[in-house]
Write a structure and sequence with these properties.
40% of the residues lie in helices and 13% in strands. The protein has 472 residues and is α/β, with parallel strands linked by helices. It folds into two domains: 297 residues, Rossmann fold (3-Layer(aba) Sandwich), CATH 3.40.50; 108 residues, Dihydrodipicolinate Reductase, domain 2, CATH 3.30.360. The strands form two sheets. A six-stranded parallel beta sheet has the order 3-2-1-4-5-6, with helices on both faces. It has a four-stranded mixed beta sheet with strand order 8-7-9-10. Strand 9 and strand 10 form a beta hairpin. Helix 2 packs across helix 16 and helix 9 packs across helix 11. The radius of gyration is 23 Å and the shape is globular. The structure holds nicotinamide-adenine-dinucleotide. Nicotinamide-adenine-dinucleotide binds next to helix 2, strand 2, helix 13 and helix 16.
Length: 472
């Protein structure tokens, strides 16, 4: 008998060894035992650099100033209001996230940005028309002091707008060098100990991954030769990473989601994430679709349309920019519903997304969804969603959280060396993942992933929701 036991033990060990050897290099176990425990403290100021000082950027900065002054609440921000359960349900430990991990405080944030228009942040916020004049007046001093640096811009990538505040250079590499100088200057003038860049500029025209994107060498050569597949957003991303600054992409452009940028981020241990803030309609989609799949309800069609009257809406009226957005919005359903696994339920879905520029609504978008589902024995049903939302009000807390979490990642060796920060998928319509890995779109899986990442970093038990021990 003893012999049998021993050989069984050997089999178990062999199986363990086999499982271990299947783990790909660079993909680490999520066990708390593996975290290296070192998160550098958030000492000094954090400089936030924003290409695109439009509706989202100004609503974010004005909001941070208002919260600092104590005249408003940071509603919608997980870093400011969210809690995290630690240990068992019976332990009663649910600290605020900002008390659990060392995040920069709002008082430590300093801002700068680039735009093709010369308006300072106060004037730009007035033009955007998102926030009330009374509120803006209370933060006017700070906002007026933020004037945009000259942008790297090319009308061919954003057809609906043009502006005077644009850099000139002999090629894209030269423009990148000018941006790098801006970054160095801001680091010095602001006294910031750390920086992050977050793209809040217009959606660029659709670009397919091409040869110039495949390696850092090809990208630099392409920039020198003004390759048309290298968009201005890529020039910003390159400049940031070369200056050692993490980069988040709030728009659906490829930008940092190309092999050359992955390489740069990985080599220099710089956090990157994107694409496209998940705010209104896609937020709802990634909540409802998981519910259908959980209950095995079929889906035959999902028609989504929007009316939007801000500058973003105007930019998206151009077919090239719309195509970039459309691709980003369409991906979520396919990945959540997994038609290959459930062909009877999701094998034949008609999914349509429209965005219509309608100036009277300004930033107050209306997103309609008509959803055709079917249940038991194939009987059809319909769901209508009419979300009268405010685009930038939904986006601003996402910008804040991304800034603070990217900064956390750059102070955490275990995260920064990954480059792509998939744990921040929660905030994106089209989350960046390692090449070949399908993205998680389900909002609640994304939230569990985010919170488990934080627990893991702090050496806390991951929460699996198994819960058998409560009944022992
Ligand atoms: N608000 C939302 O809910 C939401 C959600 C997801 C994504 N987004 C994306 O966020 C971005 C910003 O949205 P917004 O509503 O603030 O738009 P906006 O038009 O108000 O602001 C964009 C700003 O970017 C500037 N710009 C364009 N190209 C630039 C460049 N190359 N360099 C510097 N500045 C440049 C424009 O002049 C403009 O001021 C858009 O790409 C939008 O698609 C917004």
């Amino acid at each position: 008998m003893a012999k049998v036991k021993k050989s069984r033990a050997k089999v178990v060990n062999a199986a363990r060894v086999e499982v271990k050897s299947e783990v790909k290099p660079g993909v680490k176990s999520a066990s708390p035992a593996h975290h290296d425990g070192s998160i550098e403290p958030a000492k000094g100021k954090l400089g936030v650099m924003i290409p695109g000082m439009g509706a989202v950027a100004t609503t974010f900065v004005a909001g941070v100033e208002a919260v600092r002054k104590g005249i408003a609440q940071p509603i919608g921000s997980l870093t400011q209001m969210g809690t995290i359960r630690l240990g068992k349900r019976t332990d009663g430990r649910s600290p605020k996230i900002k008390e659990f991990v060392p995040l920069a405080g709002l008082n430590d944030l300093v801002f700068t940005g680039w735009d093709i228009f010369e308006d300072n942040m106060y004037a730009a916020a007035q033009n955007a028309g998102v926030l009330e004049r009374d509120l803006l007046a209370k933060v006017k001093g700070r906002l007026s002091a933020i004037t945009p640096m000259k942008a790297v811009f090319d009308h061919n990538y954003v057809k609906k707008i043009d502006g005077p505040n644009v850099k000139k250079g002999k090629n894209k590499l030269d423009l990148a060098e000018q941006l790098r100088q801006d970054i160095r200057d801001f680091r010095k003038s602001s006294g910031a100990s750390r920086l992050v860049t977050i793209w809040c500029a217009s959606t660029e025209t659709f670009i397919e991954p091409s040869a110039a994107h495949q390696s850092l060498k090809a990208l630099e050569k392409g920039m020198k030769e003004n390759d048309e597949n290298i968009a201005p957003s890529m020039v910003y991303a390159y400049a940031s990473l070369m200056e050692g600054v993490p980069f988040a992409n709030g728009a659906p452009n490829l930008t940092v989601d190309i092999p050359a940028m992955h390489e740069l981020a990985h080599e220099r241990e710089l956090p990157i994430c994107g694409k496209d803030f998940k705010t209104g309609q896609t937020l709802m989609k990634t909540v409802l679709a998981p519910a259908f799949k959980a209950r095995l309800l079929g889906l035959s069609g999902w028609y989504s349309t929007n009316i939007l009257g801000n500058r973003d809406g105007e930019v998206l009226d151009d077919p090239g920019s719309f195509k970039t957005k459309e691709e980003s919005k369409l991906g979520a359903l396919e990945h959540i519903l997994q038609p290959a696994l459930y062909p009877e339920l999701y094998g034949n879905i008609f999914h349509k997304v429209r965005i219509n520029y309608y100036p009277p609504r300004g930033d107050n978008k209306e997103g309609w969804d008509n959803i055709d589902i079917f249940g038991w024995l194939g009987y059809p049903m319909q769901i209508k969603v009419d979300f009268l939302c405010r685009d930038s009000i939904l986006a601003a807390p996402i910008v804040l959280d991304l800034v603070l979490f990217l900064d956390l990642a750059q102070r955490t060796p275990e995260l920064r060396r990954l480059g792509i920060q998939e744990w921040l998928s929660f905030y994106f319509k089209s989350p960046m993942t390692a090449p070949g890995l399908y993205p998680e779109h389900d909002l609640f899986i994304q939230l569990i992933k985010l919170k488990n990442t934080l627990r893991h970093l702090k050496g806390e038990e991951l929460i699996t929701h198994l819960g058998l021990e409560y009944y022992d």
